[in-house]
Amino acid sequence: MSTLFNQEAGPQPPREVRSAIEVLSLLKNIQQRHDPLTITFTDRTQRFQSFIVKIDTDSKQLWLDEMIPREGDRYAAMGESFRLETWIDGVHIRWQCPGAQTVMLDDAPAYRAAVPQEMIYHQKRGAFRAAVRRSLDVGIGIVHAKRAVSLTGSIMDISATGCKARVAGDCSHQLPPGDEFELSYLQLPDNGRSTLTLEVRHANYEAAIDETHIGLRFKQPSPLVQRQIDRFVNFLQREARRLEKDDLF
């Protein structure tokens, strides 16, 4: 059985996430998914587990559940600094906490800490390229900043690092490999228009269907746009796995 997605590229280098919006988005995602956090106290080798149980965006604080094993509660109560890390769909996320305060939350012990100002976002596995159904109607605009080239089309498949698009007619002569289109955009579901730079990898005219198929690389997208792309790719991966599982029964 052919799969709808496959590995496209190797691991990506770590990214420092400093935008307050992006940091809160990552934390809320971890909380909503109920992903376990691995906690390591500075100068100690033992590892502990906890969960984010509450986030206050106004005060920029978060609350952690009691730790497992319970010995971690003693270190936290002593005000020791620690590192938190977790995994989301092959992405390693980690940050430092200078210390937490012991509090009661809904009549249960918890630990309150400041929302981090910086998180490390590290995609350690290859990027997956996922097919995009025509019914999703995921649009793309390929727009050059200096040349009078402005093309619109739809995405055929997408990964965290690039995509393949279709545009009506023969426009391959306008898309030399290596050229960058700085005013381009993606029209992803539920995200509106996301502006980014696209680099052309290849462009081939398919005469039988009168379409130009274009391989594109995302060129240093903003952290916000990258997160939108990652979420959409993860959605497509889950859908592909669900469809493949359904085909087995």
UniProtKB/TrEMBL annotation:
<feature type="domain" description="PilZ">
    <location>
        <begin position="125"/>
        <end position="234"/>
    </location>
</feature>
<dbReference type="InterPro" id="IPR012349">
    <property type="entry name" value="Split_barrel_FMN-bd"/>
</dbReference>
<protein>
    <submittedName>
        <fullName>Pilus assembly protein PilZ</fullName>
    </submittedName>
</protein>
<feature type="domain" description="Type III secretion system flagellar brake protein YcgR PilZN">
    <location>
        <begin position="17"/>
        <end position="120"/>
    </location>
</feature>
<keyword id="KW-0547">Nucleotide-binding</keyword>
<dbReference type="Pfam" id="PF07317">
    <property type="entry name" value="PilZN"/>
</dbReference>
<dbReference type="InterPro" id="IPR009926">
    <property type="entry name" value="T3SS_YcgR_PilZN"/>
</dbReference>
<dbReference type="InterPro" id="IPR009875">
    <property type="entry name" value="PilZ_domain"/>
</dbReference>
<dbReference type="Pfam" id="PF07238">
    <property type="entry name" value="PilZ"/>
</dbReference>
<keyword id="KW-0973">c-di-GMP</keyword>
<dbReference type="GO" id="GO:0035438">
    <property type="term" value="F:cyclic-di-GMP binding"/>
</dbReference>
<keyword id="KW-0975">Bacterial flagellum</keyword>
